[in-house]
Amino acid sequence: MRPIAALVSAAGLLSAALIVPASAQQAPLKIGVLSDFSSVYSDIGGQGNVEATKMAIEDFGGQMFGKPIEMVAADVLNKPDVASTIARKWWETEGVDMIIDLPTSATALAVMELSKQYEKVMIVTDAASSDITGKSCSPYTAHWTYDTYSNAHTVGSAIVKNGGDSWFFLTADYVFGHSIERDTGDVVKAAGGKVLGSVKHPLNTADFSSFLLQAQASKAKIIGLANGGGDTINAIKQAGEFGIVAGGQNLAAIVMFISDVHSLGLKLAQGLIITEAYYWDLNDKTRAFGRRFQERIKRMPTMNQAATYSATLHYLKAVKAAGTKDTKTVMAKMRELPVKDAFTDNGILREDGRMVHSMFLFQVKKPEESKGPWDYYKLLAEVPADQAFRPLKDGGCPLVK
Protein backbone atom coordinates (compact mmCIF):
# COMPACT_ATOMS: atom_id res chain seq x y z
CA MET A 1 0.00 0.00 0.00
CA ARG A 2 1.34 3.48 -0.91
CA PRO A 3 1.76 6.00 1.94
CA ILE A 4 -1.03 8.57 2.29
CA ALA A 5 1.50 11.39 1.84
CA ALA A 6 2.54 9.92 -1.50
CA LEU A 7 -1.07 9.72 -2.64
CA VAL A 8 -1.67 13.32 -1.61
CA SER A 9 1.52 14.39 -3.41
CA ALA A 10 0.46 12.57 -6.59
CA ALA A 11 -3.00 14.09 -6.40
CA GLY A 12 -1.46 17.51 -5.97
CA LEU A 13 0.72 17.03 -9.04
CA LEU A 14 -2.28 15.89 -11.07
CA SER A 15 -4.27 18.88 -9.88
CA ALA A 16 -1.41 21.20 -10.79
CA ALA A 17 -1.16 19.66 -14.28
CA LEU A 18 -4.86 20.25 -14.81
CA ILE A 19 -4.60 23.95 -14.07
CA VAL A 20 -1.53 24.66 -16.23
CA PRO A 21 -2.61 27.13 -18.98
CA ALA A 22 -3.55 25.37 -22.23
CA SER A 23 -0.91 27.33 -24.12
CA ALA A 24 1.87 25.77 -22.04
CA GLN A 25 0.72 22.26 -22.90
CA GLN A 26 0.61 22.78 -26.65
CA ALA A 27 3.05 21.17 -29.06
CA PRO A 28 5.60 23.50 -30.68
CA LEU A 29 4.12 25.85 -33.28
CA LYS A 30 5.04 24.63 -36.77
CA ILE A 31 4.88 26.47 -40.10
CA GLY A 32 5.00 24.75 -43.50
CA VAL A 33 6.20 26.53 -46.65
CA LEU A 34 4.74 24.98 -49.82
CA SER A 35 6.62 26.56 -52.72
CA ASP A 36 8.08 26.21 -56.20
CA PHE A 37 11.79 25.47 -55.82
CA SER A 38 12.54 24.16 -59.30
CA SER A 39 10.33 25.71 -61.98
CA VAL A 40 8.82 28.82 -63.47
CA TYR A 41 7.94 30.59 -60.18
CA SER A 42 11.02 29.73 -58.12
CA ASP A 43 12.54 33.22 -58.48
CA ILE A 44 9.45 35.06 -57.20
CA GLY A 45 8.95 32.75 -54.21
CA GLY A 46 10.95 29.56 -53.68
CA GLN A 47 13.99 29.75 -51.42
CA GLY A 48 13.34 33.45 -50.94
CA ASN A 49 10.02 32.65 -49.28
CA VAL A 50 11.76 30.16 -46.98
CA GLU A 51 14.29 32.83 -46.01
CA ALA A 52 11.52 35.40 -45.47
CA THR A 53 9.69 32.96 -43.18
CA LYS A 54 12.89 32.38 -41.20
CA MET A 55 13.41 36.15 -40.87
CA ALA A 56 9.89 36.61 -39.51
CA ILE A 57 10.38 33.80 -36.98
CA GLU A 58 13.70 35.32 -35.89
CA ASP A 59 12.26 38.84 -35.62
CA PHE A 60 9.38 37.51 -33.53
CA GLY A 61 11.85 35.97 -31.11
CA GLY A 62 12.00 32.38 -32.30
CA GLN A 63 9.67 30.97 -29.66
CA MET A 64 5.95 30.60 -28.98
CA PHE A 65 4.60 29.62 -25.57
CA GLY A 66 8.14 28.83 -24.41
CA LYS A 67 8.97 26.43 -27.23
CA PRO A 68 11.02 26.99 -30.41
CA ILE A 69 8.97 27.72 -33.52
CA GLU A 70 9.56 25.07 -36.18
CA MET A 71 9.48 25.30 -39.98
CA VAL A 72 9.33 22.74 -42.81
CA ALA A 73 9.36 23.31 -46.58
CA ALA A 74 8.54 21.30 -49.70
CA ASP A 75 8.40 21.68 -53.48
CA VAL A 76 4.85 21.28 -54.87
CA LEU A 77 6.17 20.93 -58.45
CA ASN A 78 3.25 23.25 -59.39
CA LYS A 79 0.90 20.25 -59.27
CA PRO A 80 -2.33 20.40 -57.24
CA ASP A 81 -2.23 16.68 -56.39
CA VAL A 82 1.34 16.96 -55.06
CA ALA A 83 0.42 20.04 -53.01
CA SER A 84 -2.61 18.23 -51.55
CA THR A 85 -0.61 15.12 -50.66
CA ILE A 86 2.04 17.13 -48.81
CA ALA A 87 -0.51 19.34 -47.03
CA ARG A 88 -2.54 16.33 -45.90
CA LYS A 89 0.58 14.65 -44.48
CA TRP A 90 1.67 17.84 -42.72
CA TRP A 91 -1.73 18.42 -41.13
CA GLU A 92 -2.53 14.78 -40.32
CA THR A 93 0.76 13.45 -38.99
CA GLU A 94 3.44 16.16 -38.73
CA GLY A 95 1.75 18.76 -36.53
CA VAL A 96 1.93 21.69 -38.96
CA ASP A 97 -0.27 24.55 -37.76
CA MET A 98 -0.10 26.94 -40.73
CA ILE A 99 0.83 26.53 -44.41
CA ILE A 100 2.09 29.53 -46.38
CA ASP A 101 3.10 30.43 -49.98
CA LEU A 102 1.29 28.20 -52.59
CA PRO A 103 2.92 29.12 -55.93
CA THR A 104 -0.01 28.65 -58.31
CA SER A 105 -3.73 29.28 -58.09
CA ALA A 106 -4.47 25.62 -58.84
CA THR A 107 -2.31 24.43 -55.94
CA ALA A 108 -3.79 27.09 -53.64
CA LEU A 109 -7.39 26.17 -54.44
CA ALA A 110 -6.63 22.47 -53.93
CA VAL A 111 -5.02 22.99 -50.52
CA MET A 112 -7.80 25.37 -49.50
CA GLU A 113 -10.24 22.45 -49.64
CA LEU A 114 -8.04 20.50 -47.22
CA SER A 115 -7.67 23.56 -45.03
CA LYS A 116 -11.44 23.60 -44.62
CA GLN A 117 -11.48 19.88 -43.86
CA TYR A 118 -8.78 20.08 -41.19
CA GLU A 119 -9.74 23.60 -40.03
CA LYS A 120 -6.15 24.81 -40.36
CA VAL A 121 -4.75 28.23 -41.27
CA MET A 122 -3.25 28.77 -44.72
CA ILE A 123 -1.90 32.02 -46.12
CA VAL A 124 -1.51 32.48 -49.88
CA THR A 125 1.39 34.80 -50.75
CA ASP A 126 2.23 33.69 -54.33
CA ALA A 127 -0.92 32.51 -56.13
CA ALA A 128 -3.01 35.30 -57.64
CA SER A 129 -6.51 34.24 -58.72
CA SER A 130 -9.17 36.58 -57.32
CA ASP A 131 -11.38 33.48 -56.93
CA ILE A 132 -9.38 32.69 -53.76
CA THR A 133 -11.35 35.39 -51.95
CA GLY A 134 -14.35 35.21 -54.28
CA LYS A 135 -16.51 32.20 -54.97
CA SER A 136 -13.88 29.84 -53.46
CA CYS A 137 -13.23 31.83 -50.26
CA SER A 138 -12.60 30.05 -46.96
CA PRO A 139 -12.80 31.13 -43.31
CA TYR A 140 -9.33 29.65 -42.79
CA THR A 141 -7.49 31.23 -45.75
CA ALA A 142 -5.85 34.65 -46.03
CA HIS A 143 -4.74 36.03 -49.43
CA TRP A 144 -1.88 38.42 -48.74
CA THR A 145 0.10 39.91 -51.62
CA TYR A 146 -1.94 40.81 -54.69
CA ASP A 147 -4.53 39.24 -56.97
CA THR A 148 -5.63 39.29 -60.58
CA TYR A 149 -8.29 41.92 -59.81
CA SER A 150 -5.85 44.35 -58.16
CA ASN A 151 -3.27 44.07 -60.92
CA ALA A 152 -5.84 44.28 -63.70
CA HIS A 153 -7.31 47.44 -62.24
CA THR A 154 -4.03 49.24 -61.58
CA VAL A 155 -2.15 48.32 -64.76
CA GLY A 156 -5.06 47.74 -67.13
CA SER A 157 -6.88 50.97 -66.39
CA ALA A 158 -3.66 53.02 -66.60
CA ILE A 159 -2.83 51.61 -70.04
CA VAL A 160 -6.35 52.10 -71.45
CA LYS A 161 -6.37 55.70 -70.21
CA ASN A 162 -3.15 56.25 -72.16
CA GLY A 163 -4.64 55.03 -75.45
CA GLY A 164 -4.11 51.27 -75.25
CA ASP A 165 -7.72 50.47 -76.07
CA SER A 166 -7.43 47.25 -78.13
CA TRP A 167 -6.03 44.09 -76.53
CA PHE A 168 -5.00 40.54 -77.37
CA PHE A 169 -4.02 38.16 -74.56
CA LEU A 170 -1.27 35.54 -74.28
CA THR A 171 -2.75 33.46 -71.50
CA ALA A 172 -1.23 30.73 -69.31
CA ASP A 173 -3.67 27.85 -69.63
CA TYR A 174 -4.73 27.35 -66.02
CA VAL A 175 -6.83 29.21 -63.46
CA PHE A 176 -4.27 31.99 -62.82
CA GLY A 177 -3.97 32.96 -66.49
CA HIS A 178 -7.70 32.65 -67.07
CA SER A 179 -8.35 34.93 -64.09
CA ILE A 180 -5.92 37.59 -65.37
CA GLU A 181 -7.50 37.54 -68.82
CA ARG A 182 -11.02 37.74 -67.36
CA ASP A 183 -10.29 40.52 -64.85
CA THR A 184 -8.16 42.62 -67.21
CA GLY A 185 -10.63 42.13 -70.07
CA ASP A 186 -13.40 43.44 -67.82
CA VAL A 187 -11.33 46.55 -67.06
CA VAL A 188 -10.55 47.15 -70.74
CA LYS A 189 -14.20 46.82 -71.79
CA ALA A 190 -15.47 48.95 -68.90
CA ALA A 191 -13.11 51.71 -70.03
CA GLY A 192 -14.45 51.56 -73.60
CA GLY A 193 -11.72 49.38 -75.10
CA LYS A 194 -11.98 46.10 -77.02
CA VAL A 195 -10.57 42.61 -76.51
CA LEU A 196 -9.76 41.27 -79.99
CA GLY A 197 -8.90 37.73 -78.90
CA SER A 198 -6.57 35.50 -76.92
CA VAL A 199 -4.42 32.40 -77.24
CA LYS A 200 -3.70 29.88 -74.50
CA HIS A 201 -0.21 28.47 -73.83
CA PRO A 202 0.95 25.73 -71.43
CA LEU A 203 2.62 26.60 -68.14
CA ASN A 204 6.42 26.82 -68.47
CA THR A 205 6.46 27.37 -72.24
CA ALA A 206 9.87 27.63 -73.90
CA ASP A 207 8.80 28.61 -77.43
CA PHE A 208 6.25 31.42 -77.78
CA SER A 209 6.68 31.89 -81.53
CA SER A 210 3.29 30.54 -82.66
CA PHE A 211 1.48 32.42 -79.89
CA LEU A 212 3.27 35.69 -80.63
CA LEU A 213 2.51 35.40 -84.36
CA GLN A 214 -1.20 35.17 -83.54
CA ALA A 215 -0.93 38.20 -81.26
CA GLN A 216 0.97 40.11 -83.94
CA ALA A 217 -1.64 39.24 -86.56
CA SER A 218 -4.44 40.57 -84.34
CA LYS A 219 -3.14 44.14 -84.83
CA ALA A 220 -4.10 44.87 -81.21
CA LYS A 221 -2.37 47.89 -79.74
CA ILE A 222 -1.65 45.97 -76.53
CA ILE A 223 -0.56 42.36 -76.11
CA GLY A 224 -1.57 41.46 -72.57
CA LEU A 225 0.68 38.89 -70.91
CA ALA A 226 -1.71 36.87 -68.76
CA ASN A 227 1.07 34.77 -67.29
CA GLY A 228 3.92 35.12 -64.80
CA GLY A 229 7.48 34.32 -63.83
CA GLY A 230 9.55 32.52 -66.47
CA ASP A 231 6.66 32.57 -68.95
CA THR A 232 6.49 36.36 -68.82
CA ILE A 233 10.27 36.64 -69.22
CA ASN A 234 10.34 34.28 -72.23
CA ALA A 235 7.39 36.01 -73.88
CA ILE A 236 9.00 39.45 -73.57
CA LYS A 237 12.39 38.24 -74.82
CA GLN A 238 10.87 36.51 -77.84
CA ALA A 239 8.57 39.44 -78.59
CA GLY A 240 11.74 41.53 -78.88
CA GLU A 241 13.20 39.00 -81.33
CA PHE A 242 10.00 39.20 -83.42
CA GLY A 243 10.18 42.98 -83.50
CA ILE A 244 6.68 43.30 -82.06
CA VAL A 245 7.27 46.51 -80.10
CA ALA A 246 9.33 47.96 -82.94
CA GLY A 247 6.34 47.21 -85.18
CA GLY A 248 4.04 49.42 -83.14
CA GLN A 249 2.40 47.03 -80.68
CA ASN A 250 3.09 47.24 -76.95
CA LEU A 251 3.32 44.62 -74.23
CA ALA A 252 1.43 44.78 -70.94
CA ALA A 253 2.81 42.58 -68.18
CA ILE A 254 -0.18 42.32 -65.85
CA VAL A 255 1.71 40.34 -63.20
CA MET A 256 5.42 41.09 -63.13
CA PHE A 257 8.09 41.09 -60.44
CA ILE A 258 11.39 42.81 -59.82
CA SER A 259 13.11 39.44 -60.32
CA ASP A 260 11.65 39.35 -63.86
CA VAL A 261 13.05 42.81 -64.60
CA HIS A 262 16.41 41.71 -63.20
CA SER A 263 16.42 38.64 -65.47
CA LEU A 264 15.41 40.63 -68.55
CA GLY A 265 17.70 43.59 -67.97
CA LEU A 266 16.64 47.22 -68.36
CA LYS A 267 17.37 47.27 -72.08
CA LEU A 268 14.48 44.86 -72.72
CA ALA A 269 12.23 45.83 -69.81
CA GLN A 270 12.51 49.64 -69.99
CA GLY A 271 9.23 51.50 -70.23
CA LEU A 272 7.02 48.65 -69.02
CA ILE A 273 4.18 49.77 -66.76
CA ILE A 274 3.73 47.31 -63.90
CA THR A 275 2.12 47.11 -60.48
CA GLU A 276 3.65 45.77 -57.29
CA ALA A 277 2.63 45.66 -53.65
CA TYR A 278 6.20 46.24 -52.45
CA TYR A 279 9.43 47.73 -53.79
CA TRP A 280 12.61 47.72 -51.74
CA ASP A 281 13.40 51.40 -52.43
CA LEU A 282 10.07 52.96 -51.42
CA ASN A 283 10.91 54.16 -47.90
CA ASP A 284 13.21 53.56 -44.93
CA LYS A 285 11.35 50.42 -43.77
CA THR A 286 11.31 48.78 -47.21
CA ARG A 287 14.98 49.62 -47.73
CA ALA A 288 15.99 48.20 -44.34
CA PHE A 289 14.14 44.93 -44.99
CA GLY A 290 15.38 44.73 -48.58
CA ARG A 291 19.01 45.10 -47.57
CA ARG A 292 18.71 42.54 -44.76
CA PHE A 293 17.13 40.10 -47.20
CA GLN A 294 19.79 40.80 -49.83
CA GLU A 295 22.56 40.06 -47.32
CA ARG A 296 21.11 36.59 -46.80
CA ILE A 297 20.13 35.59 -50.34
CA LYS A 298 22.19 37.96 -52.55
CA ARG A 299 19.19 39.54 -54.30
CA MET A 300 16.44 41.97 -53.44
CA PRO A 301 13.09 40.52 -52.35
CA THR A 302 10.12 40.26 -54.66
CA MET A 303 6.78 41.51 -53.37
CA ASN A 304 5.82 37.87 -52.69
CA GLN A 305 8.89 37.33 -50.53
CA ALA A 306 8.27 40.54 -48.58
CA ALA A 307 4.62 39.49 -48.19
CA THR A 308 5.65 36.04 -46.90
CA TYR A 309 7.68 37.78 -44.18
CA SER A 310 4.71 40.03 -43.39
CA ALA A 311 2.13 37.24 -43.30
CA THR A 312 4.28 34.97 -41.13
CA LEU A 313 5.01 37.76 -38.66
CA HIS A 314 1.34 38.79 -38.50
CA TYR A 315 0.28 35.18 -37.91
CA LEU A 316 2.78 34.81 -35.07
CA LYS A 317 1.61 38.07 -33.48
CA ALA A 318 -1.99 36.86 -33.70
CA VAL A 319 -1.20 33.49 -32.09
CA LYS A 320 0.60 35.25 -29.24
CA ALA A 321 -2.22 37.75 -28.75
CA ALA A 322 -4.81 34.97 -28.85
CA GLY A 323 -2.86 32.82 -26.38
CA THR A 324 -3.68 29.73 -28.40
CA LYS A 325 -3.06 28.04 -31.76
CA ASP A 326 -6.80 27.41 -32.21
CA THR A 327 -7.52 28.26 -35.85
CA LYS A 328 -10.79 30.17 -35.44
CA THR A 329 -9.45 32.22 -32.54
CA VAL A 330 -6.23 33.02 -34.41
CA MET A 331 -8.04 33.99 -37.63
CA ALA A 332 -10.30 36.35 -35.63
CA LYS A 333 -7.23 37.94 -34.06
CA MET A 334 -5.54 38.27 -37.48
CA ARG A 335 -8.57 40.23 -38.69
CA GLU A 336 -8.59 42.36 -35.56
CA LEU A 337 -4.92 43.39 -35.64
CA PRO A 338 -3.76 45.93 -38.27
CA VAL A 339 -0.90 44.88 -40.57
CA LYS A 340 2.05 47.24 -40.11
CA ASP A 341 5.49 46.05 -41.14
CA ALA A 342 8.12 46.27 -43.88
CA PHE A 343 5.60 45.11 -46.51
CA THR A 344 2.79 47.55 -45.75
CA ASP A 345 1.80 50.02 -43.05
CA ASN A 346 -1.92 50.09 -43.86
CA GLY A 347 -3.05 46.47 -44.18
CA ILE A 348 -6.37 45.01 -43.01
CA LEU A 349 -7.51 41.38 -43.30
CA ARG A 350 -11.14 41.27 -44.45
CA GLU A 351 -13.75 38.62 -43.69
CA ASP A 352 -13.44 37.18 -47.22
CA GLY A 353 -9.73 36.49 -46.55
CA ARG A 354 -8.39 39.34 -48.66
CA MET A 355 -5.63 41.36 -47.00
CA VAL A 356 -6.12 44.81 -48.50
CA HIS A 357 -3.36 47.41 -48.69
CA SER A 358 -1.94 50.00 -51.06
CA MET A 359 -0.67 48.90 -54.45
CA PHE A 360 1.93 50.84 -56.47
CA LEU A 361 2.10 51.67 -60.17
CA PHE A 362 5.66 51.76 -61.52
CA GLN A 363 7.44 52.33 -64.80
CA VAL A 364 10.65 50.42 -65.44
CA LYS A 365 13.60 52.81 -65.78
CA LYS A 366 15.74 53.25 -68.85
CA PRO A 367 19.29 51.89 -68.43
CA GLU A 368 20.72 55.39 -68.17
CA GLU A 369 18.26 56.31 -65.38
CA SER A 370 19.32 53.48 -63.07
CA LYS A 371 21.90 54.26 -60.40
CA GLY A 372 22.90 50.63 -59.91
CA PRO A 373 21.75 47.02 -59.46
CA TRP A 374 18.08 46.68 -58.43
CA ASP A 375 17.39 50.39 -58.99
CA TYR A 376 14.72 49.62 -61.54
CA TYR A 377 11.47 51.50 -60.87
CA LYS A 378 10.02 54.98 -61.11
CA LEU A 379 6.95 55.41 -58.91
CA LEU A 380 3.96 56.66 -60.90
CA ALA A 381 1.21 56.34 -58.30
CA GLU A 382 0.18 54.81 -54.99
CA VAL A 383 -3.23 53.21 -55.40
CA PRO A 384 -5.25 53.05 -52.15
CA ALA A 385 -6.60 49.68 -51.02
CA ASP A 386 -10.23 50.59 -51.69
CA GLN A 387 -9.37 51.37 -55.31
CA ALA A 388 -6.92 48.52 -55.93
CA PHE A 389 -8.90 45.60 -54.54
CA ARG A 390 -12.35 44.28 -55.41
CA PRO A 391 -15.10 45.64 -53.15
CA LEU A 392 -16.14 43.12 -50.50
CA LYS A 393 -19.71 43.00 -51.77
CA ASP A 394 -18.71 42.18 -55.35
CA GLY A 395 -16.60 39.05 -54.83
CA GLY A 396 -19.33 36.46 -54.42
CA CYS A 397 -17.74 35.10 -51.23
CA PRO A 398 -20.43 33.20 -49.28
CA LEU A 399 -18.82 34.30 -45.98
CA VAL A 400 -19.76 37.92 -46.63
CA LYS A 401 -23.18 38.76 -45.22
Automatic annotation (TrEMBL):
<protein>
    <submittedName>
        <fullName>Branched-chain amino acid transport system substrate-binding protein</fullName>
    </submittedName>
</protein>
<dbReference type="InterPro" id="IPR051010">
    <property type="entry name" value="BCAA_transport"/>
</dbReference>
<feature type="signal peptide">
    <location>
        <begin position="1"/>
        <end position="24"/>
    </location>
</feature>
<dbReference type="InterPro" id="IPR028082">
    <property type="entry name" value="Peripla_BP_I"/>
</dbReference>
<keyword id="KW-0732">Signal</keyword>
<dbReference type="InterPro" id="IPR028081">
    <property type="entry name" value="Leu-bd"/>
</dbReference>
<keyword id="KW-0029">Amino-acid transport</keyword>
<keyword id="KW-0813">Transport</keyword>
<feature type="domain" description="Leucine-binding protein">
    <location>
        <begin position="28"/>
        <end position="365"/>
    </location>
</feature>
<comment type="similarity">
    <text>Belongs to the leucine-binding protein family.</text>
</comment>
<dbReference type="Pfam" id="PF13458">
    <property type="entry name" value="Peripla_BP_6"/>
</dbReference>
